[in-house]
Amino acid sequence: MIKKILFLGIFYFALFSAYAQKIEVKASINSKQIVIGKQAKITLQASVYAVQAIKFPIFQDSIVKGIEIVEIGEIDTAFSKANSTYLLSQEIIVTSFDSGNYIIPPFVFLANGRDSLRTNDLLLKVNTIVVDTTEKSVKDIYTVYDTPLTFKEFIKEYKYWLIGGFISIVAIVLLVLYFTRWRKKTSEIQTEKPKKAIPFHIIAIEKLEKLKLQKLWQSGNVKQYYTELTDILREYIENRYKISTTEQTSSETIDACMKITDIQPDRISELRLIFSYADLAKFAKSEPLPDENDLAFSKTLNFVQQTKETNLISENVKTINT
Length: 322
Description:
Layout: H1 2-20, E1 24-29, E2 33-35, E3 39-48, E4 54-55, E5 62-64, E6 67-72, E7 76-80, E8 85-95, E9 100-104, E10 108-111, E11 115-118, E12 122-127, H2 151-157, H3 159-182, H4 200-214, H5 222-241, H6 250-258, H7 265-283, H8 290-307
Parallel strand pairs: 2-12
Antiparallel strand pairs: 1-3, 3-8, 4-10, 5-6, 6-8, 7-8, 9-12, 10-11
């Protein structure tokens, strides 16, 4: 009995000592000077023990006015056997289109759910592109050369005419066959009324409504909540824009959406926010706050509603009270 009490005492003392160790956070930048439009990489690091929890900062579109975020990397974890600590790191790619000297304020981490830790501040100088004003000579315009049209160029130049002609011939052949061999009396044709397809945003909203009724994060199932929330979002994006998101990471999904012109920058910001909370819940050793869980849900719902197809009948519109 005494051995058991002694063992528990040593265990809890070691646990308390590790928990009480100071968490170290810092920020660094790979280049203190860039040219307008070029990119710089900011690295955030946090050194913690296994029993400690750390929450990385949440970003929007910019860090400070004039410095825009291009990409937010995932949080990587490395274990140090020397001092039994975990080194968490995250990379943020930034750029600027306004020259000047910028002071990037300290980044704020949340430790153990209550303590705010600040990194060092950073400096970034953005230089303008130097224009060579000494070159004043005016050069002649190159002469236009007339070259013969090759077969490959001919196909490329008139491919739409060739495709149109081929389609026209096929259509004529099909019409002749229809009127000569396959035409039947309309009274004998029985067609089944096609089922009305359910719009993709209606399917997504119904699934979100069911997810909300489950109250997963309220009952402590935060990881499952974000897994189902992001699965609904990925399925909607895949159906709506015909891009595969099933095997993609959060960053790859966001990059794919950025290439779609119909998706506005505000919606891209919503995706970044949603996936940052989801990655925090699923991969980091901390959980988003209750308000952040509700915000992730409302941002997902808003993304679906704002990107739905605009030519749908009004009766298909459906909302959820959040």
